[in-house]
Amino acid sequence: MRLPTGAELWPIAIFTVIFILLVDLMHRRQRWTARYPPGPMPWPVLGNLLHMDFQNMPAGFQKLRGRYGDLFSLQLASESVVVLNGLTALREALVKHSEDTADRPPLHFNDQLGFGPRSQGVVLARYGPAWRQQRRFSVSTMRHFGLGKKSLEQWVTEEARCLCAAFADHTGHPFSPNTLLDKAVCNVIASLLYACRFEYDDPRFIRLLGLLKETLKEEAGFLPMFLNVFPMLLRIPGLVGKVFPGKRAFVTMLDELLAEHKTTWDPTQPPRDLTDAFLAEVEKAKGNPESSFNDENLRTVVGDLFSAGMVTTSTTLSWALMLMILHPDVQRRVQQEIDEVIGQVQCPEMADQARMPYTNAVIHEVQRFADILPLGVPHKTSRDIELQGFLIPKGTTLITNLSSALKDGTVWEKPLCFHPEHFLDAQGHFVKHEAFMPFSAGRRSCLGEPLARMELFLFFTCLLQRFSISVPDGQPQPSDHGVFRALTTPCPYQLCALPR
Ligand code: HEM
After folding, report:
1. Which atom of ligand 1 is nearest to the CA of 192?
2. Atom 40 (ligand 1): residue with closest C-alpha?
3. Confidence tier at 473 by pLDDT (50, 70, 90)
4. pLDDT (tens digit per residue) in 337-388
5. CB within 8 Å of 336: residues ≥ 6 apart
6. Distance in angstroms (rounded) separating the CA atoms of residues 463 and 68
7. With pLDDT > 70 as the criterion, what percentage of the chain qualifies?
8. Distances (CA, A) of 180 to 2, 175, 188, 237
9. pLDDT by residue (tens digit) across 387-413?
């Protein structure tokens, strides 16, 4: 067959451009419907991709909020997005319309990385029976192990002791605490999932942590978002493996750990951990094609709990230590409270928390100020809804700007400063705030919140009971600005931990 050449190509090119523009018009037609939230004018095909500041999305959204208000819309190629800002809009969407906003937008590249209709895990699962089944299972299993003989609290306390020992090994030398914090928090998840902890110098553990971090890095930023809004690019052979090598290797490692775990599993004995409990459900579900209990989903659920539970908690702890360096007066008051309530001999327990309002306020203020997941995890509408007088059609992606509640100037006295008094009344009692929503709210709110709270309290109080944290002599003070990506991490810093 002869290929078209020269002048014959023009009609084909014009037809293709018109076709693309028509498809593009179809995607953005809802912008013209009355009561759709305003937003910057999208470009053909790319939409507002060029309006996004991928290095610091929260700051970019703050500017757009100033221009368009609490609800504004964006078009990311073919995807319609509405960004929710401020406590009122966030609560209306996540709590009042909890069910209608509980879906997640698909991440197309995951389909080639072990994610399927019956193996969606929890974090990115579409709102439906499979998500409900796995969310219920994860929550009830965590509760079960929180109450069992070897309770999660004991695991965390033991791990805090190991973390303190590792800090003590660095006495007199400045060091970055981040890797040790990652290891301690990762071991808590490992104890929940595999009833075991890894030694900090175990090469397999170091590899697991490295792959977990690589996976999170691979999923953040421009390229994955670009591939997701232009999913036809994922058909290029070998592309997914090239863009997500860490995620591929992480999935393989989870399979290895699962195969190993199965060799010691005894179904006649009570479950040792979440993996055992899941395997028992897989047995029960044999022959039921509707069930989400299968080996592929076990891998996805385990991967979800590792990735959702590890970096979030360790990053918050890293912020906590850095803020203690920057606010030595706050550190001294926490230590004074520890000495009065727990003393220097006993290990901290969760029961102590109720008698430690200042420490509790400091931990809450660390979470508010650090604002580690400023944009939460995207949601999607499963029905047309009305929000703040605007109409949001079914199938719209919602970005929850949690940062806008955590730093809301109408709620917090000093929104941009570290100020533990935000959580204390005039008598020094701990006070809660509706705008404190680092774990989000509604049906998809963080299911690991009780575990995260336990870890933050026990690790933080154990460390400050044993050590005074300061900046090494001659080194500049760390900066409290943080590095914004999907996750806000503190700027790299080193500390000195002196035994008290
Ligand atoms: C300081 C620590 C943590 C913070 C700030 C945090 C925050 C969040 C946020 C903002 C979401 C998204 C909620 C939404 O979509 O509206 C989320 C979801 C989730 N988190 Fe956490 N999280 C933390 C620790 C943990 C831990 C320790 C675990 C479990 C071991 C965990 C497991 C999950 C899961 C499974 C989801 C998905 C829930 C669903 O889609 O139904 N998180 N988390």
Report:
1. 30
2. 123
3. confident
4. 999 999 999 999 999 999 999 999 999 999 999 999 999 999 999 999 999 9
5. none
6. 45
7. 94
8. 65, 10, 13, 39
9. 999 999 999 999 999 999 999 999 999
The pLDDT of residue 482 is 83
In angstroms, how far is CA 267 from the centroid of its own chain?
33
Q: What is the distance between the alpha carbons of residues 116 and 43, in angstroms, rounded to a whole number?
A: 33
> Distances from the Cα of 334 to the Cαs of 71, 260, 324, 329, 349, in angstroms?
40, 43, 10, 9, 15
Phi, psi values for residue 121, rounded to 5° = 65, -145
Q: What share of the chain is helix, strand, coil (3-state, %, to 5)?
A: 55, 10, 40
Query: pLDDT value at position 329?
Result: 97
Residue located via tokens 């179809």: 26
> Ligand 1 site: residues with CB under 6 angstroms?
122-123, 135, 189, 304-305, 308-309, 312-313, 316, 372-373, 376-377, 400, 438-440, 444-448, 451-452
CB 358 within 8 A of CB 338: no
Is 417 one of the annotated binding-site residues? no
How far, CA to CA in Å, does 320 sit from each of 182, 247, 326, 366, 439?
14, 29, 10, 6, 17
d(CA 424, CA 361): 7
C-alpha angle 12-15-18 in degrees, rounded to nearest 5: 150
- Using the CB atoms, write b or e for 331-352: b if 16+ within 10 Å: bebbbebbeebbeeeeebebeb
SS3 state at 71: strand
The letter for the amino acid at 416 is L
Whether 374 contacts 488, CB under 8 Å: yes
Q: What DSSP string describes 300-363?
A: HHHHHHHHHHHHHHHHHHHHHHHHHHH-HHHHHHHHHHHHHHTTTTSPP-GGGGGG-HHHHHHH
Q: How far, in Å, CA of 339 to CA of 345, rounded? A: 9
The single residue listed with the structure tokens 């020094």 is 428
Q: At what angle do helices 449-466 and 129-147 cross, to 10 degrees?
A: 40
Residue entry with tokens 């050449």: 5
451 C-alpha vs ligand 1 centroid, how far in Å? Answer: 10
pTM of the full predicted structure? 0.93
Bigger pLDDT: 258 or 112? 258
How many other CB atoms are found less than 10 A from the CB of residue 7? 7
